[in-house]
Amino acid sequence: MRRWCSSFICIASSVLAVGMPQAQADLSAMSQLLKQTPTTAGFDICHGGGCAKVSHAMLTDAEWQLVLVQFQPRAYDAQTERAQLAQAIAVLELEVGAKTGTAGDRGGTFGNSAYTGQMDCNDEATNTTTYLKLMQNAGLMRFHTLQDTRTRGVYLNRWPHTTAMIREHETGQEFAVDAWFYDNGNPPVILPLQQWKAGWMPADSPAQ
Predict the structure, then answer these.
(1) Residues 44-77: b if buried by 16+ CB within 10 A, e if exposed
(2) How far is the C-alpha of 33 from the C-alpha of 167, rounded, in Å?
(3) Which residues, if any, are the signal sequence (predicted)?
(4) Which is nearest to 164 in space by CA: 75, 67, 73, 93?
(5) 166-185 pLDDT, tens per residue?
(6) Helices (H), 138-199
(7) Is residue 2 in some structural domain?
């Protein structure tokens, strides 16, 4: 049996298992958002758990400039670029959160569903993929390429958990880009996919 399933099947499995309002989860919306071509003039984001809610957002020139600043000076190696990507995603979360009511999103899922703007890992993975697309399309990713989302735990005795993912050009190494562990506006964790797949979780994360 293949250890990894397709992104859409993984998302479906994860939504069915995660403790958010599954009855409202919208797998079709999630799939469509993962396929969107975002621009600063407009893009959609997921929230509410399993993309139960979709909000439209745009970025002003000034807001996009704050993202571009995170890449100055330009990275000369992949490790530096990953750090820049994490900071840029944090900026985008703050900017988009203020426009869509998701600024109060707390790290984790379980026990937080009552908070306004809360996102589960499916929302986070979808939105992080959208932010990475924005940056990739703007030529800000020179050492990495965006990949499909990945899910861990589907065939193991634990909750499924989904993340965005990038691949380093030179080495081919895959990295999870996981924004679920911390509150909105904090940099996501970027770590080797194999380490993430093994169940890694930051010790200081409030996530449950």
Answers:
(1) bbbbbbbbbbbbebebeeebbeebeebbeeebee
(2) 21
(3) 1-25
(4) 93
(5) 999 999 999 999 999 999 99
(6) 193-197
(7) no
Among candidate residues 124, 160, 163, the one with its CA nearest the CA of residue 146: 163
Q: Report CA torsion sign: 197, 203, 206, 208.
A: positive
Q: Is residue 97 part of a domain?
A: yes
d(CA 166, CA 44): 21
CA proximity to 93, closest of 69, 117, 62: 117
What is the total count of domains within the chain? 1
The CA distance from 86 to 83, in Å, is 5
Three-state secondary structure call for residue 142: coil
117 in Cβ contact with 102 (< 8 Å) = yes
State which residues form the domain around 142: 24-197
Q: Which one, of 154, 207, 153, 137, lies nearest residue 178 by Cα?
A: 207
Residue 139 falls inside a structural domain: yes
- pLDDT tens digits, 28-83: 899 999 999 999 999 999 999 899 999 999 999 999 999 999 999 999 999 999 99
